[in-house]
Write a structure and sequence with these properties.
Elements lengths: L4 E7 L3 H11 L4 E8 L6 H15 L6 E2 L16 H4 L21 H11 L4 E5 L4 H9 L3 H4 E7 L15 H5 L1 H8 L5 E4 L1 H4 L3 E3 H9 L3 H21 L3 E3 L1 H10 L4 E10 L9 E4 L17 E7 L1 H13 L2
Parallel strand pairs: 1-2, 1-4, 2-3, 4-5, 5-6, 6-11
Antiparallel strand pairs: 7-8, 9-10, 9-11
Bound molecules: inosine.
Length: 320
Amino acid sequence: MAELKKIIIDTDPGVDDAMAIFLALQSPEVEVIGLTTIYGNVYTTLATRNALHLLEIAGRTDIPVAEGSHLTITKGTKLRIADFVHGTDGLGNQNFPPPKGKAIEQSAVDFLIQQTSLYPGKVTVVALGPLTNIALAIQADPAFIKNVGQIVLLGGAFSVNGNVNPAAEANIFGDPDAADIVFTSGADILAIGINITHQVILTDADRDKLAESSGKFAQYLCKILDVYFSYHHDAYSTKGVYLHDPTTILAAVDPSLITYVEGVVRVQTVGITRGLTLFYNKQKRFGEVTEWSDKPTVKVAVTVDAPAVVKLVMDRLMNS
Ligand SMILES: O=c1[nH]cnc2c1ncn2[C@@H]1O[C@H](CO)[C@@H](O)[C@H]1O
C-alpha cells in the first residue's frame, strides 16, 4: 500500500474548520497526525477546546492537539476575532459540553518542528488560520522549512478584494507580519486565496441534502451551520456559504483540483492596506531592486474545479 500523506492541520475552529477537519478524517489519501490551534475565528483557548471536541465527535481522540500562540508574532496588535461569522462559541452557538480530553504538553510550535523533523519532507502542514505558529516554527528552527513537505495555506486575496476590508483577507490580516515571514521563507508553499474559495459554494439545497443524509458528520454539521449561513446571506447576499477551509484541505489531499502559478508574494504590514497580499508574476524585469527581488517563489492557486470540490465535500460528509 502506498504511504499515506501525513498532515497536520493548524486550525481556529470555526464552522468551516469543523467541516475541513471531518473531511480530512474521511479522506483515505491522508493521515491526520495532529491538530495545532490558533486564534482567528475564535481565541486560541477556545480553538483548542473546539479541536478536542471535534475529535471526540469523530471518535478520533488518538490524534493529538497542540495549543498554539495566543498572540500575534509582534505581540503588539489587538486580535481580530471573527465570532460574528461562526458564533461566539465558534461552532454555531450550540453550547456543546466541554471536551473530556486535553491538549498535549508540547506547544504547537514544538510539535510542528518535532513532527516535520521525524518525517523529513513527508508532512504537509495545512494552515487554516493566521500564520503565527508557522512563522514561529520557521524562526525557532532553520531546518523547519527544509523538513516540512509543503505548507498549504488558506490566505490572501489575489487580484480580488479582501473579506475584512477591500485590501485584506481575514487570515493574513490576523497576523500580516507572520504571513510575510512564511511567504518569504523558502518553504514549499501553496496559497489558496479567497479568489479561489469564493468560487466554491455550498448551496442551501446542498445543505438540505446533508440534513437528509444519515452521515454522522453531515448530521453534526447541519446543527452548527445556521450562523455561518445567516452571515453569508447578510454579508454577501449569496444563497449558500463559501467553503474556504474544505477547499484548502482538498487541495492538499488532491492537488489536481487546482492549478497554480509561481511567483513572489509579499504582505503589506502597515497602513490602510495592512494584510494585502501582492503577487509578483515576473513578467516585468525591473531595473531597480524591489522588495520582491531575490525572494523565494511560492505557488498561488489560480483556478479550482469547484463542482468537483463540492461533490467531494458532499460525498465524504454524507458517507460518514
Ligand atoms: O467576512 C469575513 N470576515 C472575517 N473572517 C471571515 C469572513 N468570512 C470568512 N471568514 C473566515 O476567514 C477565513 C477566510 O478568510 C475562513 O476561515 C472564514 O471562516
